[in-house]
Amino acid sequence: MRVLGVDPGLTRCGVGVVEGVAGRPLTMLGVGVVRTAADHDLGHRLVAVERGLEQWLDEHRPDCVAVERVFSQHNVRTVMGTAQASAVAILCASRRGIPVALHTPSEVKAAVTGSGRADKAQVGAMVTRLLRLAAPPKPADAADALALAICHIWRAPAQNRLQRAAALHASKATRAAQAPHASKGRTT
What we know:
- This protein is an alpha/beta fold.
- The chain has helices spanning 42-60, 76-95, 105-113, 120-130, 140-184, and strands spanning 2-7, 12-19, 27-35, 64-68, 100-103.
- α3 (105-113) crosses α5 (140-184) and α4 (120-130) crosses α5 (140-184).
């Protein structure tokens, strides 16, 4: 599985591509940051993020895009910018028919470091180790994007099994609920 991880942001949108399957060594195929100038108009910044993400999608052709789920912070401006960049990433992938997965920051930290409260340095160190890199990717947004991709590769098989089980359960429940109604219309 090839996953494009996106750590959304308007000034620095981290991107990283990881390939592999759960339980086997993973390979980094690319890492970087899509940057926009803080003094530019919001519309132009969003277009720049879109163009940057489209280039990554064109070049790496991922099977899935993993985006950090936006969570509430104290700084509303930061949350808005993150949410807007996140929406651009989701739109770019969806436009191409690429599945999108959202992962919370604590979920990613727990998957990569074993602790949902790990700091950026711990995440960077584990990404470096897991991908057998010479040094942690810089800036931290790039390392976070790789961590998102790793998290998704590791968690996708279990999530897929859960989704299939839930769908099967729902299907059986629907059939069971409809069965008594079908017999009510019959006359003997």
